[in-house]
Write a structure and sequence with these properties.
heterodimer; A: 81 residues; mainly alpha; B: 269 residues; Rhopdopsin 7-helix transmembrane proteins; 9 helices
């Protein structure tokens, strides 16, 4: 999958809570940490990225809500549970 | 109940605040010499502060309860609830006098609770920052945070000189003087993590988290302003500015409660 498409989908889901600026910054940071390149991203990398950003949401909306929110993103991106 | 509180809280807060600002600006207006006499307004202020502090405490506690055990931000909510409860207990001790139309004693046991609130609230703010860092949110490098802390500390130190001068020059009893100086000094200390959290909040701009934090932090800024005003009034022995003091605390406690409620809404919606 194209990295930019996956990131856009994830950022879209978390932006209402943490704002576009933080959503992009967090996605960029975790992409770097996970070694996700600009061109393509694997399903495993997407799953790891979603998991990292989900953890970031815990402190604002709790684990259950964050998991529920990200479950939709996982499904859209075919990143599994 | 909570949706009703959302609809009522902010409009009621602004109306109450304007009543007190109006009292300060136009103390001889018919409204303030008949229906809203000074004794009634002091009692109203006491009730408003108690209600807002209780709401802030309850909503902070509910925010803690809404998060699962082990959530890194849970201790921060516990500390914030404890800090607001401490302020509530201080206010409750003074309310007895304010509702009876008697002057509030200073110093009193209430000051123990007011003073205790500072380390609790300060620790809560620091714990929030640590928790955001812990979950991997990009809230700035250690160097950036250190610069913010250094700038805020320097600004507070510079501000402390003009703020403390009238207090230290006033002819007050030693305990009165110590407490009058302690409040603004503790406020300056609280402003340091506040500045850092405000800077972090800027990174969340456009999100619901940022809105909630701006409201909470604005409340704490008004609280600091109220404390500085209180120190001045005590040092100068002036009572004419009391309405503004009441207004500052009502806005402060109201904004903190409203901001905490917004955080809670994020968790519950």
């Amino acid at each position: 999958m194209v990295t930019a498409d996956a990131v856009r989908e994830i950022v879209r889901a978390i932006t209402p809570f943490i704002g576009e600026n933080m959503a992009h910054a967090a996605a960029r940071l975790h992409c770097q940490k996970l070694g996700i390149g600009d061109a393509h991203v694997t399903r495993e990398q997407i799953a790891a990225l979603i998991s990292r950003l989900e953890t970031g949401l815990y402190v604002f909306i709790g684990r259950d809500r964050a998991s529920l929110l990200m479950a939709g993103v996982r499904q859209t991106l075919g990143a599994g549970a | 109940m909570t949706r009703a509180a959302d609809r009522v809280l902010l409009p009621a807060l602004w109306v109450t605040t304007f009543v007190f600002v109006g009292w300060g600006l136009l103390p001889r207006a018919a409204l303030y010499t008949t229906l809203l006499s000074p004794a009634r307004l002091v009692a109203l202020a006491a009730l408003a502060k108690l209600t807002l502090l209780l709401l802030g405490t309850a909503w902070s506690w509910r925010s803690r309860a809404a998060l699962e055990a082990g959530n890194p931000v849970r201790p921060a909510w516990t500390l914030l609830a404890a800090g607001l409860l401490s302020n509530f207990l201080g206010q409750a001790l003074l309310a007895r006098y304010q509702l009876a139309g008697e002057p509030s004693p200073f110093p009193s046991v209430a000051d123990v609770f007011y003073l205790l609130a500072y380390p609790l609230i300060g620790a809560a703010l620091v714990r929030f920052i640590h928790a955001y860092d812990e979950v991997g949110l990009p809230i700035g490098t250690r160097a950036e945070r250190s610069v913010t802390l250094a700038v805020a500390a320097a600004a507070c130190a510079a501000l402390a000189v003009p703020v403390l001068r009238p207090v230290l020059q006033a002819d007050l009893a030693p305990l009165d003087e110590a407490l009058s100086a302690a409040y603004p000094l503790l406020d300056m200390a609280l402003l340091v993590p506040l500045a850092l959290l405000l800077r972090i909040t800027w990174r969340f701009r456009g999100g619901q988290v940022a809105t909630a934090w701006v409201v909470v932090l604005s409340g704490f800024v008004f609280m600091c302003a109220g404390d500085v005003l209180f120190a001045y009034l005590t040092a100068l022995g002036k009572a004419g500015l009391d309405p503004f003091l009441h207004a500052a605390y009502i806005v402060a406690y109201g904004l903190v409660a409203a901001g905490v409620r917004r955080h809670l809404a994020l968790m519950l919606s």
